[in-house]
Design brief:
The complex is a heterodimer of chains A (168) and B (172).
Chain A: H1 5-16, H2 21-36, H3 41-45, H4 55-78, E1 82-84, H5 89-95, H6 103-123, H7 126-131, E2 133-136, E3 140-143, H8 144-167
Parallel strand pairs in A: 1-2
Antiparallel strand pairs in A: 2-3
Chain B: E1 16-18, H1 19-23, E2 32-34, H2 38-42, H3 60-63, H4 68-83, H5 88-91, H6 102-125, H7 136-142, H8 148-166
Parallel strand pairs in B: 1-2
Classes of the chains: A mainly alpha (168), B mainly alpha (172).
């Protein structure tokens, strides 16, 4: 059964709990390296079930999600009220051939973009941060803070998936 | 699925496609759909609306008949060669009074990497995709203190992946 956004949100926010989302975001690249290091390609490419993502595909997705996050936070901070397009992660994974992207390349891209995005979030004055918001195609008005929290919860969701995948 | 050309047409032969024309149905060319109607323009922030009018592709003459993907792949190395050994004075110099400094120009290139990589993905994946503008001046103002070379390196990693997804220049 397909999970609704509200159900997904509740589930992944449960992973975050009371943790500081900025710390979670900062820790994820290191945690990914720890999970992937020493793993052989067959394990990285293994899908848990038909149609479900492998580790290779999940890390490519994380890199693309970070790209979209970078666009969104800059757009919201620079132009409050901006429209934020919804993107279909499954279509992106097919059209951008996630299964063929080397996992270390995705990891390097993700880590570099994450570092750049966190540097921006830490530097922006509080008044600019507080005034920033966007209007998401499906979720309506969203603040930068809400995006930061959801991005951290999204990290934890995928780290947990990769952990389970590579333990098999 | 829409077929992606392995080699893009020369930029001066690409077309910007008004959204209505893209919806009209016939096979789409590889080009850009640009907001024209009031509802499309309203998806942009208020101060960006004037940027959504149709205009010629601004840099076509610079690219000419060269392969755009090959040019894109060469840019990180060309910039690295250009800035090697620069001192603070060179980083802060401008090409005209009131214009961006060298550091801000490179930061802008890094930002544009985020912008066009998002746009390429959306154009590949969304029918009747409407390109959304962004305020480049404000983006640069948000983070002028970023070390620009580091930012550029970060975003060019992404660029290499996009090029690979598009088929890539030979040898990549």
């Amino acid at each position: 059964m397909t999970e609704s956004f509200a159900e997904y949100r509740q589930r992944v926010l449960g992973y975050l709990g009371s943790r500081d989302p900025m710390r979670v975001l900062a820790a994820t690249p290191r945690r990914l390296v720890g999970l992937i290091e020493g793993q052989r390609q067959p394990a990285l490419a293994r899908r848990p079930a038909p149609g479900k993502w492998s580790t290779v595909e999940i890390v490519a997705h994380l890199a693309d999600a970070e790209l979209a996050f970078g666009w969104r936070i800059r757009s919201m901070l620079a132009s409050p009220g901006v429209s934020l397009a919804w993107w279909d992660q499954h279509v992106w994974s097919e059209k951008c051939a996630y299964a063929r992207v080397p996992v270390r390349e995705s990891l390097a891209t993700f880590s570099a973009l994450r570092s750049s995005n966190l540097a921006l979030l830490r530097r922006v004055p509080q008044a600019v941060h507080a005034a920033a918001y966007g209007v998401h195609d499906k979720r309506g008005r969203q603040s930068v803070r809400e995006f930061v929290v959801m991005e951290a919860a999204h990290d934890l969701n995928h780290l947990s998936q990769i952990h389970r995948l590579l333990q098999r | 699925m829409r077929a992606v050309p392995r080699r893009l047409p020369p930029i001066n032969q690409m077309q910007r496609t008004p959204l209505g024309a893209a919806r009209a149905g016939s096979k789409r060319r590889f080009g850009l759909a640009v907001a024209r109607t009031a509802s499309q323009v309203n998806r942009c922030s208020p101060d960006m609306k004037e940027e959504t009018m149709l205009a010629p592709l601004p840099y076509a003459a610079l690219v000419g008949s060269e392969d755009a993907l090959t040019l894109l792949a060469s840019t990180p190395g060309r910039i690295a060669d250009l800035v090697r050994g620069w001192d603070a004075r060179q980083w802060s110099s401008t090409y005209a009074p009131g214009k961006w400094t060298a550091a801000q120009l490179i930061l802008h290139l890094a930002h544009d990497e985020i912008g066009w990589c998002n746009r390429v993905r959306l154009a590949l994946c969304v029918d009747d995709y409407v390109v959304q503008p962004y305020d480049a001046t404000r983006w640069v103002a948000l983070e002028t203190s970023t070390k620009p070379v580091a930012a550029l390196e970060a975003h060019h990693l992404r660029q290499l992946q996009v090029i690979a997804a598009l088929g890539g220049p030979s040898g990549m």
